[in-house]
Amino acid sequence: MKAYRKVDFPAAKVRRFLEPGPIVLVSSAWRGETNIMTMGWHMVMEFEPSLIGCYIWDQNHSHEMIRRSKECVINIPTLDMASVVVGIGNSTGAEIDKFAKFKLTAVRGTKVSAPLIKECYANFECKVVDASLVKRYSLFVLQVVKAHVAVSPRYPRSIHYRGDGVFMVSGRHINLRSRFRPEYL
Ligand SMILES: Cc1cc2nc3c(=O)[nH]c(=O)nc-3n(C[C@H](O)[C@H](O)[C@H](O)COP(=O)(O)O)c2cc1C
Fold this sequence. Notes:
Number of strands: 11
Oligomer: single chain
Mean pLDDT: 95
Bound molecules: flavin mononucleotide
């Protein structure tokens, strides 16, 4: 292992090192309207039930739609959708219909009224199970109530935001499964 030489770094920018979970698209529905937003700030909070914490800024149109409907879908886009992902993140559903503008197909979910995005590799139907941190931190705790995942490829080319307009593309894998405690797999 390497001994790195380090310099001071602005605390407000450490997110660039922590962010790179996959960028996701969050779709929602409320009173006949549908919407999509791009989201990088999410974290897994529990295995079972499957909980995911999501930061959804209160200035986003999606915030109000999800707060009111208490449902959404987390969709996983792949590399071929990168420019759509940025376009969705740079526009608001308060002004445009993003499904129409970005030529995406809305598919009916089974457990929530928010639509799934057909062009995405995976779709996780979610319900808001804890909204107690929404007012203070815009943090929604979601439970995945139904998941739909493409059968192939096993490891899609997901994109991971590194800040400053740069994405990392998932690539090489190493398998250390045999070293793991089974309950952590
Ligand atoms: C790469 C990227 C990552 C983003 N991550 C988040 C995020 O984690 N949380 C958030 O609230 N907004 C995030 N945004 C901003 C929203 O996607 C953006 O404000 C969007 O226009 C909101 O759409 P809406 O008003 O239709 O809800 C991100 C945007 C981009 C381009």
